[in-house]
């Protein structure tokens, strides 16, 4: 197969990211027999023989999901400021996810803002620029915020549940969310917002610890308990969803006005 066709095939299969600088020929990489996960268990009657392509050991789970929630909890608790937290997240072993991302996308906006917005995870634009919500859905988010008098410079602060771009823009899985949650909670503790917008189903479900979908959750105020402190939080549609379902944009205007009114009462 010529290289261009092979590359097109890889992209079609979803391998659309370069995750290492040097190529690895996984058909010739030597892996000890004992660590070959795909090798059949040796039959007592038949000695194990090596034939066909060499099998390659899968990465251990820890290497994929990173140092895990316990390590994240410890590291996050030690952060005494947002700068500390940012440095800790940049230094943290976020596993394959972090290794494949260009940037740890920490936050954007005014950390003294009363409104904190928590999205899902960076996309390609955010990963490139190192800031949350800077692509097309970010532009829609900015418009929605502006409609109620919010902006990043003055009174809004934006972050994500996951600071590293998932490969192929996949929805972050439970292990990834669990690993990142201690950072998000510490982030909230340090920012001390009056109101939180949980943008999209991933953020709402994770922070509310529920399996309910965003269609049911959106527009209904909840209290988040962050280290004993109750913070008013509103699940809202993700702007990427609104771009696909423009007839739902009316909900977004209603929700942001609801957030504005909530802040006026606090
Ligand atoms: N979608 C998100 O949830 N967050 C971003 O930062 C960008 C797109």
Using the coordinates shown, work out and report the CATH topology. Answer: Uracil-DNA Glycosylase, subunit E
Give the low-confidence spans: 31-49, 59-63
**Helical residue percent?**
40-55%
Query: Mind telling me the CATH superfamily name?
Result: Uracil-DNA glycosylase-like domain
How many structural units, i.e. domains? 1
Oligomer: single chain
Q: Radius of gyration, Cα only, in angstroms?
A: 22 Å
Biggest sheet: strands, sense, closure?
Answer: 6 strands, mixed
The percent range for strand residues is 5-15%
Structural class: alpha/beta
Overall pLDDT: 87
Tally of DSSP β-strands: 6
Bound molecules: uracil
First-last Cα distance = 65 Å
Helix/strand order, N-terminal first: HHHHHEEHHEHEHHEEHH
CATH class: Alpha Beta
């Amino acid at each position: 197969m010529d290289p261009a066709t092979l590359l097109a095939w890889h992209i079609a299969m979803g391998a659309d990211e370069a995750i290492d600088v040097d190529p690895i020929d996984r058909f010739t990489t030597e892996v000890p027999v004992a660590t070959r996960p795909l090798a059949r268990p040796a039959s007592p009657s038949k000695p194990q023989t090596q034939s066909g392509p060499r099998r390659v050991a899968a990465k251990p789970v820890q290497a994929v999901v990173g140092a895990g929630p316990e390590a994240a909890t410890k590291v996050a608790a030690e952060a005494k400021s947002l700068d500390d937290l940012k440095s800790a997240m940049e230094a943290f072993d976020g596993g394959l996810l972090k290794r494949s991302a260009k940037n740890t996308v920490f936050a954007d906006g005014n950390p003294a803002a009363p409104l904190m917005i928590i999205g899902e995870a960076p996309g390609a634009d955010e990963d490139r620029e190192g800031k949350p919500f800077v692509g097309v859905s970010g532009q829609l988010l900015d418009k929605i915020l502006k409609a109620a008098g919010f902006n990043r410079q003055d009174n809004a602060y934006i972050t994500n549940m996951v600071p590293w771009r998932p490969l192929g823009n996949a929805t972050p899985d439970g292990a990834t969310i669990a690993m990142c949650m201690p950072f998000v909670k510490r982030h909230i503790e340090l920012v001390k917002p009056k109101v939180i917008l949980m943008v999209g189903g991933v953020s709402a479900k994770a922070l509310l610890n529920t399996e309910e979908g965003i269609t049911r959750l959106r527009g209904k105020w909840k209290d988040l308990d962050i280290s004993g402190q109750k913070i008013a939080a509103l699940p809202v549609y993700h702007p990427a969803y609104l771009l696909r379902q423009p007839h739902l944009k009316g909900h977004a205007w209603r929700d942001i006005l609801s957030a504005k009114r909530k802040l006026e009462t606090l």
